[in-house]
Amino acid sequence: MSESSLWSLLLVMTVAALAPIASRLVPGRPPQVLFLILGGMVIGPSVLGWADAVDIELLSGLGLGFLFLLAGHELDPRMLRERAGTQALLAWGVSAALAVLVVGGLEYLGYVKAFVPVAIALTTTALGTLLPILREQQMLAGPFGRYVFAAGAVGELLPILAISLFLGAYDSWWEALIIASIAGLALLLAWLHKHATSQSTLRITVVLLLALLLITENFGIEAALGAFFAGMVLRQTSSAEGNQEFEDKLDAVGYGFFIPVFFVSSGMGLDLQSILNSPGRLLAFFVLLLVVRGVPAILIYRKTLGPRQRVEMMFLTATALPLLVALSEIGLQSGVMLPENAAALVGAGVLSIAIFPFVAARLHRPVGQRPVRDPRVP
After folding, report:
1. CA atoms 220, 4, 11, 209: torsion sign
2. 369 versus 186: which is more confidently predicted?
3. What is the pLDDT of residue 377?
4. Of 50, 165, 170, 356, whose CB has the highest number of CB atoms within 10 Å?
5. CB within 8 A of 218, min separation 6: which ones?
């Protein structure tokens, strides 16, 4: 590892170490991920220029993989067959229809060039990012928690499938081969989990994520899909007896190291100059995230959730970031997305992470109740 890479990693981990401290000191306890991204912006090329995201690209890719794997590990597929799951699917379908109409209009006006990536982006929910925040704010307990989790899982899984289907970089038979290899790796991992210690399984999990990165070259979207699927398989096949120890270690490695690196790297890669040149684009995408992804919850859940809970659901489902980063990279690499729109889309995701969960938590928390602090980094 070069001196430049070591210096960048040192700065990134310094930001990661300071983020939870900053979160505790700021009134209202904003999510730690906000400070991870802001710290990355400060040390990155757009501000101080002390560190470069290229130096930690591999670790950032693993962080993205861990984010989706942990989200998949939390998901119980049976939930999607319950009322919470069917309503989540219906709400996402409404969001997808709205996204097609809205982005189609923007493309007609010349505001958007990359129709498919932007339309998919407006239907995403950052479940992996939300999980630690929701735990900390005690929002996953009871029936409401199941509705939130189902909505988040659908808002993460279906956009991943849409990206693989509409933006895949491979021929159809290559695509099928890649997905089949991912499934095989995940099943192998699950079988080994039954016959190994939690420490060995954790090492095998890292091997799986590295294999996914190698297969898809620079954590393509199939890696995110594969990581999510692997997490689901692990949940279904892991033994209840040793599962807690494995989960604790998985959380410690993921939230303690790799995932913070991904978020700091996201901040480092944010093009602040493009955002400053066109702030209206950022605000437009920020509002569209809420309208296209969040507002359908007000209608769909009217018979199952109270008015306040539906507003909470609106803000939570509109929270997005990891897939926005991936979609922006895909759009830029393919040359179909305007650089200013890519920067504004990621910037809107950063704003959604900073604002929407905070508002939802304030609505959810009874007067005088204090949340239980979760030490994990979102």
Report:
1. positive
2. 186
3. 43
4. 356
5. 57, 61
Q: What pLDDT, in 10s, does the model give residues 23-70?
A: 888 876 777 888 888 899 899 888 888 988 888 888 887 887 788 777
- Domains of the chain, by residue range, sit at 54-255+278-364
Q: How far apart are CA 289 and CA 348, in angstroms?
A: 8
User: Cα(106)–Cα(39) distance, rounded to whole angstroms?
Assistant: 33
One-letter-per-residue 3-state SS of 139-190: CCCHHHHHHHHHHHHHHHHHHHHHHHHHCCCCCHHHHHHHHHHHHHHHHHHH
With beta carbons less than 8 A apart as the criterion, state whether 125 and 319 touch. Answer: yes
Report d(CA 25, CA 290) in Å as an integer.
Answer: 28
Distance CA 134, CA 357 (A): 8
Residue of 240, 258, 262 whose CA lies nearest to 193: 240
Say how far apart CA 325 and CA 354 lie, in whole Å. Answer: 16
> What is the Cα gyration radius of the chain?
20
d(CA 228, CA 124): 15
DSSP H stretches of helix in 52-141? 57-74, 83-108, 115-121, 127-136
pLDDT in tens, 328-377: 877 777 677 778 888 888 889 988 988 898 888 888 765 444 544 444 44
Owner of token pair 């959380």: 251
Closest among 1, 42, 39 to 18, alpha carbons compared: 39
CATH architecture of the region 54-255+278-364: Up-down Bundle (1.20)
**Phi/psi at 335 (5° precision):** 80, 10
For the record, the structure tokens of 81 come out as: 């067959």
pTM: 0.78
Separation CA 64–CA 263 (nearest Å): 9
Residue type present at position 264: V
Q: How many whole angstroms separate alpha carbon 332 and alpha carbon 215? A: 21
Residue 84's SS3 state is helix
pLDDT at 147 over 70: yes
pLDDT tens across 248-269, in order? 777 778 888 888 988 898 888 8
Contact 202, 253 (CB under 8 A): yes
172: amino acid identity, one letter: S
